[in-house]
Every structure is written in C-alpha cells, then in structure tokens.
Amino acid sequence: MDVDLPPWEAAASGEQPPVLSVAQLTALIKGTLETAFPSVWVSGEISNLAQPRSGHVYLTLKDDAAQIRAVMWKTTAAKLPFDLEDGQQVICRGDLDVYAPRGSYQLVIRQIEPQGVGALQLALQKLQQKLAAEGVFEPDLKRPLPRFPRRIVVVTSPTGAAIRDFLEVMRRRWRGADVLVIPTRVQGAGAAAEIAAAIKKAAKLQPRPDVLVATRGGGSIEDLWCFNEEPVVRAIAECQIPVISAVGHEIDVTLSDLAADVRALTPSEAAELCVPSQAEVNEALDGYKVRLTQALRQRAQLARRRLDALSERRAFVKPFALIQDAQRALDGWDERLLAAMRRQLQVSQQRVREATARLESLSPLAVLARGYSVTRSVSGAVLRAAEEAAAGEQIETILPSGRLISRVEEVQTESTKKPAKKKA
Predict the structure, then answer these.
(1) Family per UniProt (predicted)?
(2) Does residue 289 lie within any of the structural domains?
(3) CB 216 within 8 A of CB 247
(4) How many domains does the chain have?
C-alpha cells in the first residue's frame, strides 16, 4: 500500500483521502509506536496482577490519571528477586507492543524494580532471609524475662514520646525497679550505629541490668528503618541481657522485634511486660496470706487432734500400767523358768538314779551283798580258781561288812578232791 500523504494532509489539500482497513491502521499505529518508543522507563502502581501457570505475568500499571496494560514474559519473570503484589509501586523498563487482534497496546517489561517503600521492603526481605538462615530468630534462643527486675536499661531517645509513655506506666505499675536511659537517636543516618553501641554498652554495665528495652514511637517505615539494620539486629541477638523490643505501633514489625526475646506492641506494653502490677502483686500476697493462715490453722487443729488422741492413750492415762504389765509378765516368766528348772532337775535326777542302778547292778559289792565274797592274793589278784592259791599262802577275803586275812591250810579242787601240797 502506497500512501503519499497522511489522510488529514490529503483532506486539507482537497484530495480524496485513502480509506484504510482496520488492519492497515493498526499496522501503522504498531509501526509508529514501536519505532518511537523502542525502550522506555515507566513508573506506576501494580494492579490486576495475574500470574497464570504459564509463568508469564500480566498486570496493569496505573497512576492517578491513566493506566497501561503490561506483560512480563516467563524468562524475565523467573529472574525477579522479589514478589510482585497489587498496590506495589515499581519502575519498569520495556518497549511498547501493539496487539493487533484486540487493537490494544501494552508495555512488554524487560526490567522491573521496586520504587520507594518497595525497595526498602526488598532489602528487608533479603536481610531477614539471611539472618533467619543463620538462626538469629530461632524461638529456642528466646530467654524468659525476670519476674521482679531491679535494674532496667532503656535504649531510646530521651526526648521522645516513647520514654515518657514507658516511665508513666512504670510509675503506675511498679516502683521497685531503677530505670537507666541510654540516649540515642532512633531515626536518621547514623542512628543504627548509635543504637547498636548503646546495646553493647548496656551489657557491660555493673551491676548488670536485668532487662534491656529498645524502643521508639510510631512512624513511617523509613523512620523505623534503623531497627531493621543489621548492626542493631545482631546487637540485640548477641546481648546477654533479656531484650524487649517495642518499636512503632502494633502493625509495625521490625527485624529487631524478631531478634528480641520479647516483642511489645508499644512502649507502654513494654513497661507492662517489664514489671508486674503492684496492685496484682498486693492482691496475690493477700491471697497467699489468707491461704497461709488457713493452712496454719488447719495444721494447728490437726496437731491438736493428734495431741488429744495421744493424751487419751493408755500410756498417758495410766503411765505405770506398762510397768505393772511388764512386772506381771516378768513374774510369769520367772514362774515358768522355775517350773522348767524343776522339771529339768527331776529328769536329771531320774537319769542319775537309773545310771546308779545300772552301775550298782554291775558292781561286785552288790554280789557280796547277796552272801558272796571276793578272795584276793597278797598281790591283789582276784582268785577265781582254787589252783591259783597254794597252801600256806596268805589271802584276803572281802565281805560286805569288812575283810578277812587268812592263810591257806589246804587246797582242794573239784576234780581231784585231794589236798594240795603245801608250798615249801
């Protein structure tokens, strides 16, 4: 298609303008835009964000007066170091593309960066991921706060509302703790270094503080940013004192909050977490007093009942009864012992009599008592046969009532009946 003059110039010159098809017009627009804007930087707010399974990203960039559709192909979207969200302010570099089937144009994004708060959020996410990987935010590292602290250090601005709120709550709740304020800047350039140095200084104080509070009032993310900086976060994590972080308002969450042992939503809540309520302590003490009194009364009553029960026992009612019982038992044992001894003596005597009878039955004297006698020679040998004696020999005859000394005149035996010859 040859077009010598643009339609509006042809109409001005009186010539009949050529009639263009939709495709021809779109082609002219496409060529003009893509040639005029080969690469352009655009800032705006993301809306209508869509991320289908294909990996491409579709969105709309808008400001207060206009909007433009944009697309990011999969190869570019895969390299993004941060997540896209609706409402996020970004700066995009890309080229314009006309989509002929729909007759619309769009920005093909080649590069995208967060703008303003988005940049800070990106930096915050990267630092948080780094510290989390090192275990700085591990719940197991959190330490409990002392129940009744005696010395509290507050790292904050001495002229800010945070310290006034903190001290007001402290005066109202508890007066048993000393508060030391280490003044620092809490926003702006150099504030992070001052806060980190103050935290390290507090850890070296003697006597050692019981609690450290890092706090400031609310503000924008830029105002609170020093509590997101690495030196402050590491100083809190490495502090040997239990740390309470109370930065900003309830909706504000900083990396210092994550690293601290306890996070308080506000400076006033930090004071409430630091110390107990005097009224609650007094109420608890009154309760303990009542319970202790009741317990002592119950123990006294129990002891009295036990004492009454003991006093009614026989040992206390009749203290000599036990002695008398023991005496009676002793007498009984004495009688039984004597009876046993008598029985044993009788048995022994019976045994002696029996042994004596047996001995007497075997004794030669018993034989003599029956009319017999025993004859012995001079040498003392018992003569059992007549042949053992000789005529003229002196012999001794033992009778039950005495002894006889005699001399043998003649010896006769049963076999011979002849007198024996007298020994020369």
Answers:
(1) Belongs to the XseA family.
(2) no
(3) yes
(4) 4
